């Protein structure tokens, strides 16, 4: 009986690991989808708003029929009233909106794979600072040789990934730097979400707050751009249909990770999902590339180095969220 139970447990674990890898592929796919929408619209902020706004509509619809999300909202309101969490923390979703806006601008220029490498490097490096100042709410963590080495490896991986294109003057360095900056934004956002989750006790409530704040920020930012004549609203194209799936992918990702992290743990999930993201981004750049995509031996080496950096860091460089459900 115990052997049968063990086999069943192993089968369940393997399925969850497969879903963790698939969640990483979803991240890469979302970057490709949002990048294509931005390319067609010629407006990265409007593209980000479409992605974020559609995700908000979906998760708000779920909230109507999910009483646990409402409980999370009440928990968060009470925590703010008791001053257990700073009010400014609630604006973490604006960082998510900024991340998607940068993503939609950068991916069409450099491709999904280079963007993924740069973004992961930014997350890893920023997480050193996040943990140092104790932004996650779990206390301050000192720099260690292992964590600094991991950050150094991932940053070095970015340079290796783009080396051939730098030599050929065939790359926008600014685009790569912005991709790295976008990753650092995610590092800070996850840390703030860690604090919010401690109060809500419901990951989907945190996600609803993030989508609401991110969408509001993008509406405001786009509105200001229109008012000062720095940008124009562009009619949404009729297709292809898949350019509008960015928000749906985000919500599916939330549904996956809210269960997977709980069973596999943050470390295992991070290592497997990052692997899925890097492999997925490479496959996308091979089979469905953007104009800026270029697969080379340097990029392959950079991807391997990036994953090595995450493994060296033990997944701990990506801020840990103590969750029941994940943002």
What's the helix and strand layout?
Layout: H1 2-41, H2 44-65, H3 67-81, H4 92-110, H5 112-132, H6 145-167, H7 173-200, H8 203-227, H9 246-264, H10 266-287, H11 297-312
Helix pairs in contact: 1-2, 1-4, 1-9, 1-10, 2-4, 2-8, 2-9, 3-8, 4-5, 4-7, 4-8, 5-6, 5-7, 5-10, 5-11, 6-11, 9-10, 10-11
Note the main attributes of this structure.
disordered C terminus, 11 helices, 76% helix, single chain, globular, 0% strand, mainly alpha, 327 residues
Mean of all residue-level pLDDT scores? 86
Radius of gyration over C-alpha positions, nearest whole angstrom? 19 Å
Would you list the SSEs in sequence order as H and E?
A: HHHHHHHHHHH
Largest sheet: none
Portion in beta strands: under 5%
Structural class: mainly alpha
Shape: globular
Tell me the helix content: over 70%
Would you identify the regions where 5 or more consecutive residues have pLDDT less than 50?
316-327
Q: Find the count of extended strands (DSSP E, 2+ residues).
A: 0
